[in-house]
Amino acid sequence: MEIRIRCADGVRPIRVLGREARIDGQEIVTTLNQLYANQEKYLMVEVEIPGSKSGAHREVAFVKASYANTVSKRREDLSGSAVVTYSDSDREVEEKRNKDVMVSSIELVATEKNRKAVELRDKGRKAEAKKLLRMNADILKSKAREYNAPALGALGRANQEDMDSLDDDASWGVQRKAMRKRQYKVETQQAW
Fold first, then answer.
1. Whole-number Cα distances in Å, 21 to 13, 17, 136, 168
2. Is the CB of residue 111 less than 8 Å from the CB of residue 157?
3. 1 - beta bridge partners?
4. Are 115 and 86 in contact (CB under 8 A)?
5. What are the domain boundaries of the chain?
6. Contact, 120 vs 128, CB < 8 A?
7. Each residue's pLDDT tens digit in the chain (192 positions)?
8. Main-chain dihedrals φ then ψ at residue 43, nearest 5 degrees
9. What is the Cα 158 distance to its own chain's centre?
10. Residue (of 54, 59, 52) closest to 11 by Cα position
């Protein structure tokens, strides 16, 4: 499956979280492999949107997914758009916040930081890796309470454990493998 996202004028794509993608100007392109019926995958894109007055609506992006339908043996397309509504009411923003999206984005950002900690540790920069994991663990634990999200709490505890055992050179290979497995699970949205 190929996914193409065309950001509206004035909307700046910043990054794609948890998945390889190409950002070329206003367009983002990525692929998903082996997507099956009743399976859900998502693409998380961070964008910068210009401000506007409360109550205004703005199209953010147009999305097109092209895929090979293995039943019909034809190429098919799905499309849609993302629209935001501006509000100056903190209460309204809070009510409209999608908890599942927030938790997923927090997991993906934390996983990105965890991946960076592995890179730092591989380069022998243990103190920097520990500092990053400590900050990550603290943020995850805080967000776990804020969103009542046990998965974030578990990820925070895992980051704390990673930090606590980062100095053990003898077991780094095993620990590194466990960290990479956890990263892969979050990034590919695997349930196992």
1. 11, 9, 24, 35
2. no
3. none
4. no
5. 2-90, 97-187
6. yes
7. 899 999 999 999 999 988 889 999 999 999 887 777 777 778 899 999 999 999 999 999 999 999 888 888 899 999 999 999 999 999 999 999 999 999 999 999 999 999 999 999 999 999 999 999 999 999 999 999 999 999 999 999 999 999 988 888 888 988 899 899 988 888 877 554
8. -125, 125
9. 18
10. 59
Burial class (CB in 10 A: 0-12, 13-18, 19+), 64: middle
In angstroms, rounded to a whole number, what is the distance separating the alpha carbons of residues 62 and 4? 8
- For 189, the token pair is 């949205």
Residue 191 CA to residue 166 CA, distance in Å, equals: 27
Structure tokens at 117: 């900690």
Considering the entire predicted model, what is its pTM?
0.81
Q: Which helix (H) or strand (E) holds 156?
A: helix 150-164
Considering only CA atoms, which of 54, 62, 55 is closest in space to residue 11?
A: 62
Strand ranges of the sheet holding 74-85, from the earlier edge strand across to the other edge: 22-24, 27-31, 2-7, 57-69, 74-85
Q: What is the rounded CA–CA span in Å between residue 26 and residue 96?
A: 27
**Position of tokens 């916040």?**
97
Between strands 57-69 and 2-7, the pairing is antiparallel
Three-class SS of 8-51: CCCCEEEEEECCCCEEECCEEEEECCCCCCCCCCCCEEEEECCC
